[in-house]
Specification:
Largest sheet: 5 strands, mixed
Order of helices and strands: HHEEEEHEEHEEHEEEEEE
Strand content: 25-35%
Strand order of the largest sheet: 4-3-12-7-8
Number of helices: 5
Helix content: 10-25%
Radius of gyration: 25 Å
C-alpha cells in the first residue's frame, strides 16, 4: 500500500519524492527479507521452525537448566555437520545400519526425567527426550553373543555399557533436553542417557555404536582408573587426591 502511494506521488513530483521513496525501501526491504527467513542456519533447528524455549518445570518437578551443566568433555563442544553425519550401528548384528538424524527423530519418542550425577560431586535434573536403544537393537538384530555396546563420540571419546543393562532399563538416546533440541555443548545430535550411572558413562556426540562380545577393556576414563560399571553411589571422586575411592 505504502509503495503504491509513494509511486503515485513520485509520478507527480519525481524529484521531490525520490528521497522519501528511497527511505521507505530501506525500511520495507529488511523487513521483507527477515520475514522470508534470509540467512544460513548453524543450529539443529531450521530457519522456518519456531523458536523453542527451554522448560524449567515438568509435572511439578523443578528442572536444572541445561546452561548450568559443566563441560567435562575431553576436547570441548563438538560441531557436527548434520548433513553428512550418520549413526553407524555395527559389530555383532545381523543387519548393520547407518541412520540419518531425520530417521532417528521420526522414531517413537520417550520422555524421561533423569538425574545426571558427576563423580566431581555435582548433579542435575533434566527432562530428556529421545528414542529407545533396545528397540533400535531389535531392528539391527543384535546377536546373542553380544554382551556389550561400545559408544564412540565425535571427539574421540568412548565408553561401554552392557546389553543387559540397556535392555532391562530401556535406556534412551536423547535428541532433546528440557524441551529443546540438544545444543553443541550438550552433545548434539545424540546423548546416551545412562540412568543410575555416573556422567562419564553418558556418551555425547555419538557417531557409532559397536556391539561386541567383550567391551570391558574399552572406555576413555575406565582405562584411566575409573570404575568400569560407573554405578552412582558406589564411588565418589576425591579431587584432592585425584583418584576414585569406594
Amino acid at each position: 500500500i505504502y509503495v503504491t502511494k509513494l509511486s503515485a506521488m513520485l509520478a507527480r513530483n519525481e524529484q521531490a519524492m525520490l528521497p522519501l521513496f528511497r527511505k521507505a525501501l530501506f525500511v520495507i526491504l529488511p523487513l521483507f527479507t527477515a520475514a522470508c527467513g534470509g540467512g544460513n542456519s548453524t543450529s539443529p533447528m531450521q530457519d522456518n521452525e519456531p523458536v523453542v524455549v527451554e522448560i524449567f518445570e515438568y509435572m511439578g518437578e523443578k528442572l536444572t537448566s541445561v546452561t548450568k551443566l559443566r563441560d567435562n568433555s575431553i576436547q570441548g563442544p563438538q560441531a557436527v555437520n548434520i548433513n553428512s553425519w550418520r549413526l553407524k550401528v555395527d559389530g555383532l548384528v545381523d543387519n548393520p545400519r547407518e541412520f540419518t538424524y531425520e530417521e532417528l527423530l521420526a522414531r517413537d519418542t520417550i520422555k524421561r526425567l533423569v538425574w545426571l550425577h558427576c563423580v566431581d560431586g555435582w548433579s542435575a535434573k533434566i527432562l530428556w527426550e529421545g528414542f529407545s536403544l533396545a528397540r533400535l537393537f531389535e531392528e539391527v538384530g543384535v546377536q546373542i553373543s553380544a554382551r556389550h555396546a561400545i559408544f564412540y563420540a565425535e571427539d574421540g571419546y568412548h565408553n561401554y555399557l552392557s546389553v543387559n543393562y540397556i535392555t532391562v532399563n530401556d535406556i534412551i538416546v536423547a535428541t532433546h533436553a528440557n524441551g529443546k533440541p540438544l545444543s553443541e555443548s550438550r552433545g548434539f545430535p545424540l546423548h546416551v542417557i545412562s540412568q543410575s550411572k555416573y556422567g562419564y558413562k553418558w556418551c555425547k556426540w555419538v557417531t557409532r555404536i559397536e556391539l561386541v562380545k567383550d567391551g570391558s577393556q574399552a572406555g576413555f576414563y575406565e582405562n584411566r582408573g575409573y570404575p568400569r560399571e560407573g554405578n552412582v553411589g558406589e564411588h565418589y571422586y576425591d579431587p584432592d587426591e585425584n583418584r576414585l575411592r569406594p
